[in-house]
Amino acid sequence: MRIIRIATVLSIMVLTVSSVKAQFATGADIVSSYVWRGIPQDGTSLGGTPNIQPYAAFTTGKLTLGSWASGSFTGAVKEVDLYASLAVSSKFAITLTDYYYNFAGQPNYFKYNNGTGHVFEGTLAYTGSAFSASVNTMFAGADKKVSGDNALSTYVELGYQIAPVAKIFIGGSLGESQTYATTGFGITNLGIKVSKSIAITDKFSLPIYAVVGANPYAKTTFFVAGVTL
């Protein structure tokens, strides 16, 4: 029955996409290491090995549906996320994300009850001409307290574009969270991101970026370089 329900949902999505004018996008980043919200994603303090991070999305009107993934060159990290984002206005957006980590001890993607590798999160984001802010709360799935109750881990991030190619940011966990390795409020992500395009030919440029940051709560630093394809 579960397979039938999944097939029905996919069929509805295909029919919906075919009946509206949608814009499709795809690409990938190659990063020197995978650090998410100041937290290394393969168990090392430096973020570990390079990752390739592909994405695919389509947008119709104010709605965007997409998928984002990350896989380590060594196979140590593998993540596949799904998301739906609604642009409430030109500056505000609401997003629902289904994170799936098959390195979380649950290789069965279709397991959603106890022991699942999925985490579900709701996000409210504001993006202005220079200032940005987001509130992200995990409301279901593998985000648990030691007691087994939902942790409702909440991460807030503020950003400011200090130059056309540079953005500073600060973010942190608002409370106790195993996901962010905090026992209370703590700043986990502080740094600067600098972007640049390298001209390869007259018609093609290669976007690159670097993120220099720190996790003050864990007393660690990180440096991530990336290339967007």
Notes on the structure:
The chain is mostly beta strands and 229 residues long. It has a single domain, classed as Porin (Beta Barrel). The chain contains one helix and 14 strands; from the N terminus they run H-E-E-E-E-E-E-E-E-E-E-E-E-E-E. It has one helix at 2-19; strands spanning 23-31, 35-36, 39-40, 51-60, 63-72, 78-87, 92-100, 118-127, 131-141, 154-163, 166-173, 186-199, 205-215, 220-228. The strands form two sheets. It has a twelve-stranded antiparallel barrel. Strands 2-3 form a two-stranded antiparallel ribbon. A hairpin with a 4-residue loop joins strand 6 (78-87) and strand 7. It is globular. The chain starts with a helix and ends with a strand.
Blueprint (SSEs and pairs):
Elements: H1 2-19, E1 23-31, E2 35-36, E3 39-40, E4 51-60, E5 63-72, E6 78-87, E7 92-100, E8 118-127, E9 131-141, E10 154-163, E11 166-173, E12 186-199, E13 205-215, E14 220-228
Give a nutshell description of this structure.
The chain is mainly beta and 229 residues long. Helices cover 8% and strands 55% of the residues.
